[in-house]
């Protein structure tokens, strides 16, 4: 995907898959092709028991509010291309902090998606580490959420290939983002990955039997493809067909539902209130990066596009920039929409811009300070990513084994 939010795309299911009708062994063998890993153990220990048959992950049957309820699972991520900006933060990462208290959460850096368009090979590894550090600096708590790098769990790529065999090419040709980006880049500069990355996105989601997917408005089409693909694979290979092959039968994949944040889900460009804030925009003036200096933030807000209408207001279609800036102010100050509307209705831009600037600087300063602390301790960050990948792979390998079995592959 050419944009940040993986945001935008990954989800979740129940806490841990339940084993049914299977023999348990402490050996490291598996019944179906899986990934061999050399990751650090998950904090608290990871069971070494391996299942030689199918695994079920039933939906929770108790309410979310119950203390004994099984948490639903959410998986999401952001690309390590360019700098993490305010749109990534308010549209995805900030929401993760609240989601990790309510759900089982896995957040990863989608480095495989970052290579769908030409990229800086020398910077990919550094950008991946920077993005992971920013996740933690923004408040992602590793005692509540797993943080890992997408390419460190090879099941993502394996499942993508299996799903590709069941994906009609017509489904991919209708993807709007592919049409837009291929038109801009030109056919000679567009790789097959730009066309097929929605299948990788589906793999990212379905691999973890996700219940919910945090998505931005521009990613809803990709989630629909994921849902359709899950239903298609369930129909082609699940149910009695799978049971005849020794599996548990029923659905192979859980069909995820979208989770769209009520506010801040779509932060717009500072230079065009009708375009989403984006890493790929040619002008850095169009975005506030999380690591921007105080002077850079002040300069960008001072020069951002506004209008000549009197007062400030939300939801006026003729004033997209005004709505965007007020929405940003509302989110970073934790005020209600009504409070901001009342506070700012009689202001002019000369009064509001310094207030917004100060609010942004105050909000981002603790994040920038924590980021520097994390980056100074590379051993800590490496451990976090290794433990997160190990936990994620334990879940992913179960799904992958089931898919191999349901599609008729020979056991290893």
TrEMBL record:
CDD domains: TrpRS_core. Its EC number is 6.1.1.2. It is found in: Mitochondrion. Keywords: Aminoacyl-tRNA synthetase, ATP-binding, Ligase, Nucleotide-binding, Protein biosynthesis. GO terms for cellular component: chloroplast; mitochondrion. It catalyses: tRNA(Trp) + L-tryptophan + ATP = L-tryptophyl-tRNA(Trp) + AMP + diphosphate + H(+). One of its GO terms (molecular function) is ATP binding. Its main location: mitochondrion. The keyword Transcription regulation does not apply. The keyword Metal-binding does not apply. It comes from the Eukaryota. It is an enzyme of class 6 (ligase). Pfam families: tRNA-synt_1b. InterPro entries: aa-tRNA-synth_I_CS (IPR001412), aa-tRNA-synth_Ic (IPR002305), Rossmann-like_a/b/a_fold (IPR014729), Trp-tRNA-ligase (IPR002306), Trp-tRNA-ligase_bac-type (IPR024109), Trp-tRNA_synthetase (IPR050203). GO terms for biological process: post-embryonic development; reproductive structure development; tryptophanyl-tRNA aminoacylation. NCBIfam families: trpS. Belongs to the class-I aminoacyl-tRNA synthetase family. This is tryptophan--tRNA ligase. It comes from Helianthus annuus. The gene is SYW.
């Amino acid at each position: 995907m050419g944009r940040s939010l993986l945001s935008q795309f990954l989800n979740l299911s129940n806490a841990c898959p339940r084993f049914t009708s299977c023999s348990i062994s402490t050996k490291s063998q598996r019944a179906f092709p899986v990934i061999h890993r050399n990751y650090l153990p998950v904090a608290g220990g990871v069971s070494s028991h391996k299942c030689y048959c199918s695994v079920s992950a039933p939906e929770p049957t108790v309410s979310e509010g119950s203390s004994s309820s099984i948490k639903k699972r959410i998986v999401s991520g952001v690309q390590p291309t360019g700098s993490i900006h305010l749109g990534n933060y308010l549209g995805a990462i900030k929401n993760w902090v609240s989601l990790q208290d309510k759900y089982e959460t896995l957040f990863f850096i989608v480095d495989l998606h970052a290579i769908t368009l030409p990229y800086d090979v020398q910077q990919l590894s550094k950008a991946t580490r920077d993005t992971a550090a920013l996740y933690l600096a923004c408040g992602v708590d590793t005692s509540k959420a797993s943080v890992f790098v997408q390419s460190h769990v090879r099941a993502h790529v394996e499942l993508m290939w299996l799903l590709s065999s069941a994906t009609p090419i017509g489904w991919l040709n209708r993807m709007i983002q592919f049409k837009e980006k291929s038109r801009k880049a030109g056919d000679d500069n567009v790789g097959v990955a730009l066309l097929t990355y929605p299948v990788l996105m589906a793999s990212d989601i379905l691999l973890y039997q996700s219940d919910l997917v945090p998505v931005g408005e521009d990613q809803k089409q990709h989630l629909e493809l994921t849902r359709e693909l899950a239903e298609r694979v369930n129909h082609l290979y699940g149910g009695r067909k799978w049971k005849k092959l020794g599996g548990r039968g029923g659905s192979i994949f859980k069909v995820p539902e979208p989770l769209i944040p009520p506010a801040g889900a779509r932060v717009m460009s500072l230079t065009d209130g009708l375009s989403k804030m984006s890493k790929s925009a040619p002008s850095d003036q169009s975005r506030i990066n999380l690591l921007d200096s105080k002077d850079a933030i002040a300069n960008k807000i001072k020069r951002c596009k506004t209008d000549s209408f009197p007062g400030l207001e939300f939801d006026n279609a003729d004033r997209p920039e005004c709505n965007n800036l007020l929405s940003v102010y509302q989110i970073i100050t934790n005020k209600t929409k009504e409070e901001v509307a009342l506070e700012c209705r009689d202001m002019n831009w000369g009064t509001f811009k310094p207030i917004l600037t100060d609010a942004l600087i105050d909000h981002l300063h603790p994040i920038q300070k924590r980021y520097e602390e994390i980056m100074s301790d590379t051993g800590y960050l490496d451990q976090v990513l290794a433990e997160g990948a190990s936990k994620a792979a334990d879940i992913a390998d179960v799904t992958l084994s089931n898919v191999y079995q349901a599609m008729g592959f020979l056991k290893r």
